[in-house]
């Protein structure tokens, strides 16, 4: 029906039907014009594929040089090492006879040991956590949601208190051991 609406000739219909029978996609370009229909001039110019010249066209040297192809980036050297650090290192070698790198390594090791020793006290952390939960519960009661969270928060507080009791027992046991080592003479039960 579309072919009839376009008033296609028999050869044009046959040309399209060949594509359909083969299962190929229909051509993007228009089918070959019949001798009966005149072809507009704009059609032949726009739809024809551009043909490449037989030999490549060369651009004149002035056109090439006018572009950015021949401009080079300026080289900007950057120091590969810290010159001030190198100066201090050389001064230390000449003044003391040794490199300060060894001292830095020792300082880093000492700092790491100090960091390991300065662990936060778990007992204090538990105290802070209990205080946070009490504050939260007070805020919820002020908002009228106290009953909703009271059971959960009180359970968490009791767990924290239990953990604090365990820590306290361990500490008191350690203190007893230290005291018995420091004062071996006497009655141990009095301690």
Automatic annotation (TrEMBL):
InterPro entries: UPF0193 (IPR007914). It comes from the Eukaryota. Signal peptide: none annotated. PANTHER family: UPF0193 PROTEIN EVG1. This is EVG1 protein. It comes from Dicrurus megarhynchus.
């Amino acid at each position: 029906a579309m072919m009839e609406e376009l008033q296609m000739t028999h050869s044009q219909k046959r040309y399209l039907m060949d594509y359909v029978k083969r299962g190929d996609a229909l051509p993007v370009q228009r089918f070959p014009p019949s001798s009966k229909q005149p072809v507009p001039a704009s059609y032949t110019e726009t739809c024809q594929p551009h043909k490449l010249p037989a030999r490549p066209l060369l651009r004149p040297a002035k056109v090439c040089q006018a572009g950015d192809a021949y401009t080079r980036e300026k080289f900007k050297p950057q120091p590969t090492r810290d010159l001030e650090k190198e100066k201090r290192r050389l001064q230390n070698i000449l003044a003391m006879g040794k490199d300060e790198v060894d001292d830095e390594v020792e300082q880093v090791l000492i700092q790491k040991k100090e960091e390991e020793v300065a662990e936060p006290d778990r007992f204090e952390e538990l105290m802070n956590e209990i205080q946070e939960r009490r504050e939260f519960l007070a805020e919820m009661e002020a908002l009228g949601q106290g009953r909703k969270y009271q059971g959960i928060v009180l359970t968490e507080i009791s767990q924290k208190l239990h953990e604090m009791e365990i820590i306290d027992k361990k500490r008191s046991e350690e203190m007893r051991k230290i005291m018995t080592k420091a004062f071996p003479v006497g009655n141990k039960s009095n301690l």
